[in-house]
Amino acid sequence: MADSGTPKRPVRQTEKLLSALQALNDNPLPFVRDLQLGFVDGVNELTGILIGPNNSDYAGGHFRFSMRFPPQYPFNPPDFTIVTAICHPNVNSRFGTACLDALWSTYDPHMPLKVLLTELHNLLAEPNYDVPVDNDILEKTREKAREWTQSFAQPSE
């Protein structure tokens, strides 16, 4: 039988992620919903909804996110994307990629998935307006962040 050229799902990585998902199901994070693991474009991808932190410009928002795990994971960290439109100084406006430099400077291959998700949530709780990820035309202000949360990140009934 000829090889179809379709990438094969990395078995060990998938087992590790499934184990981490089971741990999250057993002891869920209150700000994460609807976690699903898929295999998209040759990589494992975890999707879900991140609930905006209370007392933040993103409070009450439901933000769809994606974590894509490169073949080198856990030795290389996953890529985070916030799929829901968001006005955030540390998220690329065009592509939704989240800049988690503080996390990546301390990243360790043994870092639990729970910590990675918590850091993404912390990014919403404490945006760094002094170091924006891009200098796009959109003015990223706290007021604009609240407006976008109301416009784009409301839970569907």
From TrEMBL:
Signal peptide: none annotated. This is UBC core domain-containing protein. It holds the Pfam family UQ_con. Residues 12-157 form the UBC core domain. It comes from the Eukaryota.
